[in-house]
Amino acid sequence: MRVVMFGYQTWGHRTLQALLDSGHEVVLAVTHPKSDHAYEKIWSDSVADLAEQHGVPVLLRNRPGDEELLGRLKEADPDLIVANNWRTWLPPEIFDLPTHGTLNVHDSLLPSYAGFSPLIWALINGEREVGVTAHRMDAELDMGDVLVQRAVPVGPRDTATDLFHRTVDLIGPIVTDSLDLIASGKAVWTPQDRSRSSFFHKRSLEDSRIDWTWTAEELERFVRAQSDPYPNAFTHHRGERLRIVSATVSEGRYGGTPGRIFIREGDGVVIVAGAGARSGRLPGLVVERVRTEDGSEYAATEYFRTMGGYLTAHP
Question: Which residue, among 194, 195, 83, has the nearest Cα to 135 in the 3D structure?
């Protein structure tokens, strides 16, 4: 088959590599220009560089739909478009252009976690597994019929970084299997159960702000979901932003006001957590490592020299 690829960052890079290895003819790659956005500077393997290394023509676009792009697509005459981590909506005149339409590869177990940053949101929400889905693109974002889907378990100490590496390794096999099914005429497209669908927005600074009325279990996942190199979960101490690099749930139960810097436990410092903390029946969050705004990282027991005072959502 003649294949056009739309994609960006490491997800797109892995997809393009799988297409190049597949034996099908990659006739054009469309990708976004480099960005300074915090979430787009990480996992930033270049689709453009990989395409150029293999003699594949490249177009850079922030958004699709201009006449030059449409003309180049028609000239390429693809049998299939494959997309992964394309950051804007593709119009029908693009996704319906090829004979076999457009295959989109999305890093969640659709119909759950359509949209953006699915691994982070899934970990925050305590999902037991995550994965990757290859589905047919249509007019509704991430809602088209599913062709191939693979899952991996979420361990009790997994970070978003761990889950990224585990799921990005699924991309190559999923792309290869999908192309084999489509080319052989054996593809079976399964409609998504819309009653189970959920859609999540792009992440911003506000989404990393700690709310100490959350339970310690929720906050511990919140910290793991924003592991390096992602922007970390943050709070404020004495008016300055403080990033929480690692944390666990306390063994003891601690009562008082959420956000109170309370007591040492093990290798960290307990912060009172949970809206019901005044009952004294809830565990706290044991903060183990922190990072200040200048990038300095400390063990919590070194940073919090004395107990008392509060961590707050705002300065």
Answer: 83
> Do you know the residue count of the chain?
315
d(CA 107, CA 175): 12
Give, as one character, the DSSP assignment of residue 144: S
Q: Which residues does 296 contact at the CB level (< 8 Å), separation at least 6?
A: none
Write out the E strands in the chain: 2-7, 25-31, 58-60, 80-84, 102-106, 114-115, 129-136, 146-153, 199-200, 233-237, 240-253, 261-265, 268-271, 283-292, 297-299, 311-312
Nearest to 91 by CA among 71, 115, 64, 110: 64
Q: How many CA atoms lie within 13 A of 71 on its CB side?
A: 3
Token pair belonging to 247: 């944390």
310 neighbors 283 (Cβ within 8 angstroms): no
Q: Where residue 36 falls among pLDDT bands split at 50, 70, 90?
A: confident
Return the closest-CA partner of residue 39 out of 87, 97, 96.
Answer: 87
Write the CA distances from 170 to 35, 59, 209, 215, integer angstroms: 25, 26, 31, 33
The tens digit of pLDDT for each residue in 63-113 reads 887 899 999 999 999 999 999 999 888 999 999 999 999 999 999 999 999
Q: Which residue has the tokens 């693109």?
A: 137
